[in-house]
What we know:
Blueprint lengths: L1 E2 L10 E9 L10 E6 L5 E4 L27 H30 L5 E6 L5 H8 L2 E7 L2 H11 L3 E3 L14 E7 L8 H11 E12 L4 H6 L14 E2 L2 H11 L2 E7 L2 H12 L15 H11 L1 H9 L5 E7 L8
Amino acid sequence: xxxxxxxxxxxxxxxxxxxxxxxxxxxxxxxxxxxxxxxxxxxxxxxxxxxxxxxxxxxxxxxxxxxxxxxxxxxxxxxxxxxxxxxxxxxxxxxxxxxxxxxxxxxxxxxxxxxxxxxxxxxxxxxxxxxxxxxxxxxxxxxxxxxxxxxxxxxxxxxxxxxxxxxxxxxxxxxxxxxxxxxxxxxxxxxxxxxxxxxxxxxxxxxxxxxxxxxxxxxxxxxxxxxxxxxxxxxxxxxxxxxxxxxxxxxxxxxxxxxxxxxxxxxxxxxxxxxxxxxxxxxxxxxxxxxxxxxxxxxxxxxxxxxxxxxxxxxxxxxxxxxxxx
Length: 326
């Protein structure tokens, strides 16, 4: 047994070794890390834990696909970016929008705030699906781009305290896609999300999960692990449930994320170079190679979903209405 800093999800300080000798799959941050498995809830925590002041330096200048990729760079780069968006990201976003509609059970006007929204491509798909969207990101240049180029209301916010500069009970849905695993303070983030939601509103998050089929199959090569040191934690279902209830949510439910995302995580685990977007100028053929490998990974993606052991879970939780039972 190892004693270390408290778990983000259950506050236990007792661990056992789990994944060791982990290197950054992007080859951007040098060094090695480990993940310790919490003996209280089964979640995995990065070790050694970086100082919060270091976190921003772990991200390369180009980390995710944005609308700028369709306008800037060489003609070949722009074509590849549009291909990647058209056949991989856009179908995911449309599927997620439909699933959220199904979860909240309404087709009317729905105010949605996406925390950690990035370049806004997902918000464009949600707006197409009828949501009244807004975004929040810690990068001012991203927020300015959303407002000026995409016509999306956006705010510069500290992701650890997202509710402090916005009116309380303003949104029907608050989303956080692939964000919690990057945070050094999960509890304060979830409590701020409660504040932003209207009574009965829903929090929707996507996050890699301990106990998934891919976590067991790939081990320390799983792409959620090799995102160290940007990924600070990988929760278990029990850990997420505990933290959501501690923050004030009820009815946490787990759904598999999209099949494309399930396949994408498998591809990145087998072929890490496919995700090195910041190196695209020298590895421009990788998206095509990843697409071929993705077809081979389809059975694994279906298996994770059908066995209820998906690599990425979409988690939905509700803010209680006044007078409702806990």
